[in-house]
Amino acid sequence: MTLKDYRDHEISGATPLAREAFERALHLHLSWRSGADLHLEKALLEAPSFTMAHVLRAYQSLCSRDVTRVRLARSAHARASTLPASHRERLHVAAVGAGLADDFEAFRALLHRVLDEYPRDVLALQVGHALDYMTGDIDGMGARIAAVLPAWSKGVPGYHAVLAMQAFSLGEVARYADAEDRGLRSLELDPSDARAHHALTHVYEMSGEVAAGQRWMRDRLAFWVDTIAATHLWWHWALFHLAQGEVGAALRLYDQHVRNTRSSDLADLIDASALLWRIKLRGVDTAGRWLELARAWTQHTEDGYCTFSDLHAMLALVGARDWTSASRLESVLLRHSRLDTRYGETTRLIGLPACRAMVAFGRGDYARATELLGTVPAFARRIGGSHAQRDLLYLTLLEAVRRLRRPARPAAA
Predict the structure, then answer these.
(1) What share of the chain is helix, strand, coil (3-state, %, to 5)?
(2) Cα atoms in the 13 Å half-sphere on the side-chain side of 110
(3) CB 383 within 8 A of CB 351
(4) Is residue 142 part of a domain?
């Protein structure tokens, strides 16, 4: 008899022990906690032909802004493609294939098909949520979750993750009370869900409740500090300090938690650039921090995959005043902007003008920076990320306008 997962879907090639390890890996993956890889490896050692375990491994790599990591999904996809599969599993394998082919429309459509037929497929919901986040489709994100909610209840494993995803999507459309409600309900079911902690942090930040946000993070530190989202949550805490004018405290968090390990992970590099740039906008000298960060970014300046990443790479190069590397990145973007691809379009609409604006700002040409950034708002959502992350564009525009009107005064860190 074919085994079923904890949400009553058939799973091909599994054993009871492999299913248990897979479900543990899935739980950790959905909760943004460390250790999912170990349990997934255990599932595949127990059952090498476990189709959905290979699919989960592929999605772990595919849902990334790092093109090198995305390509790692190829081997898992190739293996899954050779294995026995149910209709649902075949849709997943096809969705991974579409993602690897950079066909995000087909990728999204296939995930919709899975959820239309299997609304409790929490992995399809998670991957669709990640895709919506990366492409800035906030409306689609909310609609996707709303469509499957009637099929879910407290007794279904993974419901905490569904509520955490909904909390984030509601926060992005400024429904803060509803977002807080869903986030807290998620944590009632699973206090260790780091995604829910992150969503509630967004609520406090976007609603301007700085003191409450800091208390929330401090009181719940033990639940999020040892997670894959830890660096990003330290970044959020630093933003709370900046909101209160505590630049020195924000820089200490940068040194002690955001950039303490000199991580080469793309998400960590993005957080570091975003935080240092916000501090730079305040006229603060960040010493040699930009030089180290710019060196770490050099391995990604020719990725040609993610406009959101390109922007943060340019911030580091401009911050370090590495005009040679900045010019090289601009040339890469110009070349890609001529392509009729997903990435070519976002580069043309946002990446190239935004990066040129950052160069102009760094060189003190605030009129040019203002002109270029003025073309971006209509398309800014297309680069993905959250409102809190994309605010960097608007903060730079506001500071460029301010400096046009009166020169900036150096501030003390």
Answers:
(1) 70, 0, 25
(2) 21
(3) yes
(4) no
Looking at 258-351, list the stretches that DSSP marks H as alpha helix, in order from N- to C-terminal side: 266-280, 289-297, 307-319, 323-337, 342-346
SS3 33: strand
Question: Last residue of some domain: 83, 106, 125?
Answer: 125
Based on its alpha-carbon atoms, the radius of gyration of the chain, rounded to whole angstroms, reads: 22
Nearest to 179 by CA among 190, 191, 165: 165
- Angstrom distances, CA of residue 208 to CA of 89, 95, 213, 231, 242: 43, 39, 9, 21, 12
Which residue range forms the structural domain that includes residue 384?
247-413
Same domain, 257 and 401: yes
| Domain-terminating residue out of 125, 160, 177 | 125
Q: In a 10 Å sphere around its CB, with 0-12 CB exposed, 13-18 middle and 19+ buried, how is residue 82 labelled?
A: exposed
Determine, yes or no, domain membership for 263.
Answer: yes
Q: Give the bridge partners for 33, in sequence order.
A: 227
CA distance 29 to 193: 10
- Alpha-carbon distance of 238 to 278, in angstroms, equals 10
Is there a contact between 275 and 258 (Cβ–Cβ < 8 Å)?
yes
The helix (run of H) or strand (run of E) holding residue 30 is helix 16-30
| Mean pLDDT, the chain cut into blocks of 10 residues (413 residues total) | 92 98 98 97 98 98 96 98 98 98 97 98 98 94 96 97 98 96 98 96 95 94 93 96 96 97 96 97 91 96 95 97 97 96 95 97 97 87 89 95 77 49
Domain presence at residue 184: no
Structure tokens at 158: 């993974």
How many domains would you assign to the chain? Answer: 2
Structure-block tokens of residue 84:
């026995």
Q: For residues 114 and 125, give the distance between their C-alpha atoms in angstroms, rounded to a whole number.
A: 9
Residue 202 burial (C-beta neighbours within 10 Å; 0-12, 13-18, 19+): buried
What DSSP string runs through 345-390? HHIIIIIHHHHHHHHHHHTT-HHHHHHHHTTSTTTGGGG-S-HHHH
Tokens 């971006």 correspond to 376
Cα 248 to Cα 290: distance, rounded to the nearest angstrom: 16
In degrees and rounded to multiples of 5, residue 136 shows phi and psi of 75, 25
